[in-house]
Design brief:
The protein is of the alpha+beta class. It folds into 2 domains: about 130 residues, no CATH class; about 90 residues. The protein has a 3-stranded antiparallel sheet with strand order 3-4-5. The protein has a 3-stranded antiparallel sheet with strand order 6-8-7. β1 and β2 form a beta hairpin. α2 runs antiparallel to α3 and α2 packs across α4. The longest helix is centred in the C-terminal third of the chain and has 27 residues. It is globular, with a radius of gyration of 20 Å.
């Protein structure tokens, strides 16, 4: 049975003022082949986080950034296929969505990230035993701690910790940005608001400690990868939050 055309879904989404393919329909079309190829999610109730894995003979842990890249590439392929339909409205909607993603138009970053989260939510869950098997296999593949070159070992640990902090901050940033309200916001003021919001949230500090540990430079990098950031007058930059 052929997969449903996501562009033919009754519900739609928006990127800017353009009507595009519904993000949930697109996520479902992307998640199905990923699940068949062994992509699964571990729902860590204690940490209140979800971890993505590719299972199979060579298991791997996927970061949210890696999932975003996969989702974007798969979306372009699925949308290109979705254009080949006799349903003119669906074909036009698929073509519009693909064009906007390829052009990285304003609103695309938040749209792709939303699809990535919905793909993650649609993937099958890993049971406790399978998760233990995967983590044990990943641990066995890590290079042993060197006996003498401890500087390289600790440098690798710092890189891993930095990536973990970025992942945790991105989880919070995705949910927090819409609270700023639609419109244009000075990035310096957004950074100040982020610091205050994170510091005042005991849940964030407890569940996503990395969100409180990233610096301004890392925050701006994550902001640029998550939302539309534009240049303004007097060398000021602004983040654009789309309307409802």
């Amino acid at each position: 049975m052929p997969a449903a055309n996501p562009a033919a879904a009754r519900s739609t989404d928006c990127i800017g003022e353009e009507t595009v393919v519904d993000s949930r329909a697109l996520a479902a079309a992307i998640a199905e082949p990923l699940a068949l190829s062994g992509h699964k999610v571990h729902d860590d109730d204690y940490a209140d986080r979800q971890f993505i894995y590719r299972t199979g003979a060579e298991p791997a842990h996927l970061t949210l950034k890696a999932l975003q890249e996969t989702v974007k590439a798969d979306a372009l392929q699925i949308l290109a296929t979705a254009e080949d339909t006799e349903e003119r409205v669906a074909a036009r909607r698929a073509a519009t969505t693909r064009r906007l993603i390829e052009q990285n138009a304003p609103g695309v970053k938040s749209y792709v990230l939303r699809v990535a989260y919905q793909v993650r939510d649609a993937l099958p869950l890993i049971g406790a035993e399978e998760h233990e098997t995967i983590t044990a296999a990943l641990a066995a593949r890590r290079p042993p701690k060197p006996a003498k070159d401890r500087s390289a070992y600790f440098a690798a640990r710092r890189v891993a910790l930095t990536e973990r902090h970025r992942e945790e901050a991105l989880e919070v940033l995705h949910k927090w940005l819409p609270t700023l309200g639609p419109g244009r916001h000075d990035v310096a003021e957004v950074w100040a608001a982020w610091q205050a919001a994170v510091a005042n949230s005991t849940r964030v500090v407890r569940m996503y400690p990395g969100a409180a540990k990233i610096g301004r430079t890392t925050f701006y990098e994550l902001l640029d990868s998550t939302a539309d950031v534009v240049d303004g007058h007097a060398r000021r930059r602004y983040v654009l939050i789309p309307g409802a």
